[in-house]
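Before any further analysis, backbone shapes were mapped to integers, which produced the following:

***
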Amino acid sequence: MKKLVSIILAAVMCLSIAACGGGSGSGAGGNTPQGGSEDGATLSAVQKIIAEAEGMTLEELAKKAIEESNGKMFYGVGNSSRGKSALPKFIAYLQTIDPNYNMTFEWQQPKNNKIFDQLTADSQKDTGTFAMTLIQDGNQIESKMVKTGILDTFIPKDWAEANGTTADKYEGYLALQTLNKVFMYNCTGSKTYDNVWDFVAEGEHGLYMDIDSEIVGKNFLYMLTRDDYATWLKEAYDALSADEKAYFTPVIDSMKQEAKDLGLGDNGAYALAWIKLWVGSYNAVTDDGPICTTLVDASATDQFGLLVYSKLRSVEETASSSVNNIHVAAYDDGYTGIGGFGYCHYLFVTDNSPLPWTACAFIAYMTCTADGFSAWGKDMGGYSSNPKVAAENEATYNHQKGGTAEDGTVTFPAKNDRGYDWWTTTGKLVLEDPSYCADVAFTVGSWIEILDKYSAG
């Protein structure tokens, strides 16, 4: 193992030398100023439009979009099918400015992580098919899409102002929303999970989408090795009893040299130990839907999973199945450690966009208006990146009282979403950082690839 890690690190050093000066320099993925580039290169035609668009309001962008795309076809591509729901609302908004405006559209949602291949192939054309994309997986976005010049970041003026910044000062990619996956467990038995290390204790097999089928799950593991999140794991370990520590301590000790070889911080061994135990124990499931269906059934006593919080919204209450058959671990009094992880849906304009003004206007509409975000707004655990839109959305859907009846009775406590601010502080949600994920994909990522995985069979 030590020899393998040394080879990996040497390869990374060579790559770093070859790519000198190519880093983003941003903790959130980096955003080269649209008015110019870090290395002085000439802006593309689309980047020039973005530079102008970033100084315009949504209404000004809407007028540009009407001029550009009236009577034309708009192609979008994304990881979320709800872009297809947002586009008719966008068209209706443009029609409030010009009743004669009309645009046809097609929204594609490639399966099995093929969106990166599809965008890469489309980038070879002088003028692409896709005007914009809604895309997840910060690691591949950073390495395959942005650094290669396939996708361009556009920061709407109204969005920047709502976040107390400006487009030229903002560093990072534009997120439509942050989604969370949280630890939940079936509570029909006597077992409780009051520490994040309980999920990797001896004999535990949590339900989880396999890291090779949903790559953001692997990004979660990457992020655990960052100093701040590794420290959370160390603090949670310190809170365990001596008997509980006995199972974990030998694993942590065996990871100390590994952590040094991988260039991790002082608490890196705690992160590697948790990752090793998790990969070696979780029961891989193809989708979060079946995980939720399993956990809320009365027969799933003492089972747990790490899954998208919003799945609770679609649970049908029956004699055997109920949201009240599960607990969200982080909501329990006395719970210690990480409550789950958060990842983003990012919005980009393709660098060879056939309709760049319309793409910018559509992106601004989704991120700057509650109607534009409404295709996603009904889900708990999905938080608009615009604080004004987030507040309007909460006022509409009342996610923080989503499990409370009209008479004030708390009917389904697990459905009372405590909100982004709570999850990212008290709830200790691990947030995906595209730049960090890309930086450790060769080192930590290669180490994860050779870990033994659990097989239920």
Summary: The chain is about 40% helix and 15% strand. The longest helix spans residues 2-18. Residues 1-40 have pLDDT under 50 and may be disordered. The CA atoms of residues 127 and 352 lie 5 Å apart.
